[in-house]
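Recap quiz, item 2
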Amino acid sequence: MEIRYSPVRFTAGLLAAVIGFWFVFWEPGPLDESPLYAIGPLLLAIGSVVAAIQLSVRPRTGVAGMAAPAEIDAWLALVYSGVLIAWLLSNASVFTVSWMGNTTTSIALLQIVVAYVVISAVLRGRRGKAVQEDERDRAINRSAARWGRHALIACVVVLMVVLGTSPAHRLAWATPPAVAFLLFLALLFGWLLENAATIVYYWRDRR
Amino acid sequence: MSGTPIANEIRRLRFEHGEMTQEALAQACGVTRQTIIALEAGRYAPSLELAFRIARAFGAGVEEVFRWESA
């Protein structure tokens, strides 16, 4: 079935994603055991999928035609890594105590991750047999990956120094779940920076 | 990745080959259209393999498509 670009559907998808994003961060949500907890991540996921599909079938003219598939993937990854980091930070009080203790939060986290995997798979699938990545993209990815790696190393070194040099009585906060949470954030921050660097490299390459 | 001493005749050769589109050349060489755009604008130096692929798509030698442009 051929899907045609519709500005109305694109706007509706984007709107649903924004409303979902709002629910995730500003509604009572999972921490208050609200039955509406699932609406935010679900709206975010469905809205993002609809908007992404519409964007992928949009006639590639103007700025959209200039973006390489790998650049669009980097934008998607940047948005999702940003959403994930912001969401994790807003739920830090849960994750620093126990990762498995709050089922609703775990489900919401899973929904955000699954939404990203589904959207990127849908985008790749819709591109069909077209070349998705070539030697120029790989060169840009290599350069961008260095930024991500350095950011991850910096975060781990900071954590290592804090844990290794602080007196024991000042490390009451450093429970195993809290340290695992910080390491997870470091990983995500490295990914965020890698995607941001990828976008900057493509932008510089176009100038 | 911007600015390269390797100049090319890709744009001219495309038009001499029945106004071949960037997309068609990209498909023939197994790269994205954005890479062809970057090559034509002189912002990207291709690998030796890609240079040969492009030359082959035009039925020409590598030196007919690419040349070293000293500053």
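The CA atoms of residues 74 and 119 of chain A lie 13 Å apart.
DSSP finds eight helices and no strands in chain A.
End of item.
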